[in-house]
Automatic annotation (TrEMBL):
Family note: Belongs to the zinc-containing alcohol dehydrogenase family.
Limits of the Alcohol dehydrogenase-like N-terminal domain: 25-130
Keywords of this entry: Metal-binding, Oxidoreductase, Zinc
Protein name (record): Alcohol dehydrogenase
Top-rank taxon: Bacteria
InterPro entries reported in the protein's UniProt record: ADH-like_C (IPR013149), ADH-like_N (IPR013154), ADH_Zn_CS (IPR002328), GroES-like_sf (IPR011032), NAD(P)-bd_dom_sf (IPR036291)
Needed cofactors: Zn(2+)
PROSITE patterns the UniProt entry points to: ADH_ZINC
Amino acid sequence: MLAYTYIEHGKFGLLDKPKPVLEDPRDAIVRVTLGSVCTSDLHIKHGSVPRAVPGITVGHEMVGVVEAVGTEVTNVKPGDRVTVNVETFCGECFFCRRGYVNNCTDPNGGWALGCRIDGGQAEYVRVPYADRGLNRIPDSVTDEQALFVGDILATGFWAARISEIAEEDTVLIIGAGPTGICTLQCVMLKRPEKIIVCERSDERIRFVRAHYPGVLAVKPEECRDFVRAQSRHGGADVVIEVAGADDTFRLAWECARPNAVVTVVALYDKPQVLPLPDMYGKNLTFKTGGVDGCDCAEILRLIEEGRIDTTPLITHRFPLSRIEEAYRIFENRLDGVIKVAIVG
Ligand SMILES: [Zn+2]
Ligand SMILES: [Zn+2]
C-alpha cells in the first residue's frame, strides 16, 4: 500500500509498504478514507519533534472504516465509520483515569501515531487501544465534517474546556490558523461576552470576519491596545495562545488582565522566555499543551447537532497519490490554503 513516510530530517516520501496487521488483541486496522496534513507533520519534517522515528508513516488526523479488530475490541466492529484519535491511551493508568490521556504511561501513550508508530497518510493504519482511540461517526455526519475530531478539533475543545471561560469574559485567541479556528468554534460554545482573534494574515482575518461575524479580529501590532479597550479590567480574562510565533507568548501574557488564565496550546520551535520579574504581581495562571484528546464522542455529538462545523477549513482536496503536492501547498501556504484533505 502507499504510505507517506518520514525518511530523514527534511525528507518525506511516498513509499510502497506492506498493509498493517493486528499485533495485539486490542488493535484495530482502519482503511483510511480521508486524512489531512497537520502543522505537526511539518514539525517532524523539520526536526523539531525529536521523538519522531525515521521510517514511520506520518499522518495523525484521519477518518476511515474499520477493516479488522482484535479479539478484545468491543466498542467498534468491521464496517464502522470512525474517527481516529491522535493520541494513544490505555484508559487505565494514573493519568488516563484522571482524563490526562496525553500523559498515558503506556510505551505508546500520547502522540504516537504518525510520530513513533505508523500513522494514517496511508491506505491503512493500525490503531492500538482501538476501544479508546476510535469513535464511531454518526450516520448523518460526513467524513469531511468528522475529519478534524481526533486532532485539531480535540485540541480546540480541550483548550476551551481547561480555560475556565465565564459568560462575562473577554477571551483573546492568538492565531487563526486551523487549530485557532477550531479553538474559536469551541470557545463560542461557552458563550463569553466577547471573543477577540489576533492574527497576522489578512487572508485569515477575512476568513474569521466572513464566517464568524460576532467575533472581533485584530492584527498583532494593534492587539494590546485593542484588547485593553475591549476589556473591563485592563486585559483579557482568558487568553488562548495558539500561534506559536516568536513573539506571541509575550503577547499572550501582556494582553491578559491580572489573575487571568493563559492557556498555551502552541508548539514552539524555540524555547520561550518567562520573564517573571516583568509579570510579578499579575498573578497569572498558565496552562500548557498538549491536548488531552478524550472528548471525541462529545465533539461528534456537537457536530451531529450542527453546533460545530469545521468543513469551511477544508480548502483543498488531493488523492493520496498526489500528497507531495498537498504538502507543498500546505507548507508554503499557497492558494489561500487552510487545510488539505487527502482522499483515500
Ligand atoms: Zn496534528
Ligand atoms: Zn494510560
